[in-house]
Amino acid sequence: MRAPVSTFSVFLLVLSGFFAVAGQQLPADEQRPPAGYSGLYTRISRAVVGITRSDYPRERARSSITHYGTGTLLDPVGLVLTSPTVVPEGSRNIDVYLHGGRVAAAMLIKVYPEKEISLLQLKDFRRALPPGQERLEYLRLGSSGSLAIGDPVFSLGNAFGSIQTDDQVAMAAGVFSGVVELKQKHPESTYTGPALESTAALNNGMDGGPLVDSRGRMVGLLILNFSRQRWLGTAVPIDGMKRLIQPHRSWFDDSLEDGAPLAGLELMGSPEGGRITILKVNPGGPAAEAGLRQGDVLKSFNDEKVESVAGFRKLFNDSRPGQEVRFGVVRDKTALSLELTLWGRF
Questions:
Q1: What is the DSSP string of 8-72?
Q2: I need a surface site. Which of 21, 265, 304, 310 has the fewest CB within 10 A?
Q3: Which residue range(s) make up the domain with 92?
Q4: What is the CATH classification number for the domain harbouring 311?
């Protein structure tokens, strides 16, 4: 897709505050006030980003073709989920457009074409932060399997380039209408398999964006493929994508892990890999009491070398509450070994 040549506003579709059933308005106590959707939009739209990439054909070295689409921030340090229709394998010159007109360069870290997944990482998330903030807004992952037919859902995205041109995330509301089996590949979307179908609009440029439930959690990835028998918008269910996304997370927050142990800290890996720093230490937690500090570089856990956030995550989640563990860190070029007793989640 080629970027629009002029700036224009894109409409925002929001439900009118009530659902009509057979032409009858629902009772007042069952109506959802319009402000509820406005609040939801305000809360989640800042985690939705526009994406552009420029390819430079060899025969036209001084010209460029700019493609655009949508992505979703999955953590506060700049992991972005999008579609290969937006950022295919081998892409370069990738820019991510965030709320407030901020633009950040990104690198492509992994593509799973059969699952319609492209993962990007902002090269320096701190440069993309709004003034006075320490982290980016991001969407939590929900459960596509928990959706019931008729549940409200929302599609968000860079419709017709609205984010990079107008700093506006387009949002449409609808209902979840069922799971369909996509059996044929689309010229632009090769995904086949189960897909979430909804009545929420999917406009040009919204591919790669999130399908969100009423709690503001991402339940699907909007795609261009569709059922020729039904003609509604589709999304890849998020439940089947989680295991592919998880190993590429460069951010660790033990309060959000599925395991039982707690140390009270957050970690961040560098986009290039090989360097893991402590991003935050919760006051009064085990890590803080042991003397760990923000900015410490993690080298080992229980005397086992740590080279990636994924590697640390496995070691940490295999630990148990009440266990005494050792963190090997480097602070100001000095190696330290700090012991703490893990708390637990019960």
A1: ---------SS-EETTEEPPGGGPPPHHHHHHHHHHHGGGEEEEEEEE--GGGTT--EEEEEEEE
A2: 21
A3: 43-128
A4: 2.30.42.10
Tokens of 157: 């995205």
Q: What gap in Å lies between CA 39 and CA 311, rounded to an integer?
A: 38
Q: Is 308 helix (H, G, I), strand (E, B) or coil?
A: coil
CA distances from 258 to 51, 55, 91, 227, 345 (A): 31, 40, 34, 36, 9
Q: The tokens 């961040």 sit on which residue? A: 268
Residue for token pair 């980003």:
49
Q: Is the pLDDT of residue 17 over 90?
A: no
As given in the structure block, the two tokens for residue 54 are 């420029």
Contact status, residue 108 vs residue 120, Cβ threshold 8 Å: yes
Question: Is position 223 within any domain?
Answer: no
Runs of H (alpha helix) within the chain: 34-44, 162-166, 242-245, 286-290, 309-317
Cα–Cα distance between 308 and 291 in angstroms, integer? 22
Q: What percentage of the chain exceeds 70 in pLDDT?
A: 85
Per-residue pLDDT of 252-294, as tens digits, reads: 999 888 889 999 999 998 866 678 999 999 999 999 999 999 9
| Contact yes or no for 80/74 (Cβ under 8 A) | yes
Amino acid at site 321: P
